[in-house]
Amino acid sequence: ECYIQNTAREYAKIYAAEAEPLEGFGEVPEIIPIFLVHRPGNNIPYATVEEELVGEFVKYSVRDGKEVNFLRRDSEAGQKCCTFQHWVYEKTNGSLLVTDLQGVGMKLTDVGIATLAKGYKGFKGNCSISFIEQFRALHQCNKYCEMLGLKSLRTTHQKQWKATSMKIKNLPNSSTIKKTVPKKAREPRDFISSEH
């Protein structure tokens, strides 16, 4: 837990150093430090300690991705958290994503990190790779992404889709493929069409 949060905190510091000097960017989200404390005389010898956050606790991104959070999309803190995710994604070439961003205002805690299956530079996160895929598909850039000059993920995603479509179009002609479908399966009701 400490390793994940403090690793994310280091990315947030670099993000802040790039974003804060930009005119009009303003305050940047901060991931608070978390410390592991050894208490040898206690029944539970280890505990984590961090700053107490006072105020309305908001989840700006959700681990399972099933919840739509308007505070994430519509608030300044939420937009800057999304931009931070985009920035980390771009800096690591899509190999790492800081997720589960939550906290009070611009102070964040209890974050997660998703990495590709092989990890990123020897580091493996604590969240599923599906979070990276979901982020790539759902992220909508905002004015803070533009201020940092981040590349639109929609364009990248569309290019990947076009490349896949081209491969599909270049498949051998159906007349050159020997068909072994039983006669009964050729009836129209047995085929399901879908558009991609």
Automatic annotation (TrEMBL):
Region (Disordered), start-end ranges: 175-196
GO cellular component terms, A-Z: basolateral plasma membrane
Cellular compartment(s): Basolateral cell membrane
Entry's Gene Ontology molecular function annotations: ATP binding; protein serine/threonine kinase activity
Catalysis: reaction(s): L-threonyl-[protein] + ATP = O-phospho-L-threonyl-[protein] + ADP + H(+); L-seryl-[protein] + ATP = O-phospho-L-seryl-[protein] + ADP + H(+)
Glycoprotein among keywords: no
Ranges of biased composition (kind: Basic and acidic residues): 184-196
The organism's place on the tree of life at top rank: Eukaryota
EC annotation from Swiss-Prot or TrEMBL: 2.7.11.1
One Pfam family this sequence matches: Alpha_kinase
Main location: membrane
Record carries keyword Repeat: yes
Residue span, Alpha-type protein kinase domain: 1-153
Keywords: Cell membrane, Disulfide bond, Immunoglobulin domain, Kinase, Membrane, Repeat, Serine/threonine-protein kinase, Transferase
Gene3D superfamilies: MHCK/EF2 kinase
PANTHER family in UniProt: ALPHA-PROTEIN KINASE 2, ALPHA-PROTEIN KINASE 2-RELATED
Record function comment: Protein kinase that recognizes phosphorylation sites in which the surrounding peptides have an alpha-helical conformation. Regulates cardiac development and cardiomyocyte differentiation by negatively regulating Wnt/beta-catenin signaling.
Similarity comment: Belongs to the protein kinase superfamily. Alpha-type protein kinase family. ALPK subfamily.
Protein known as: Alpha-protein kinase 2
Species of the source: Cepphus grylle (Black guillemot)
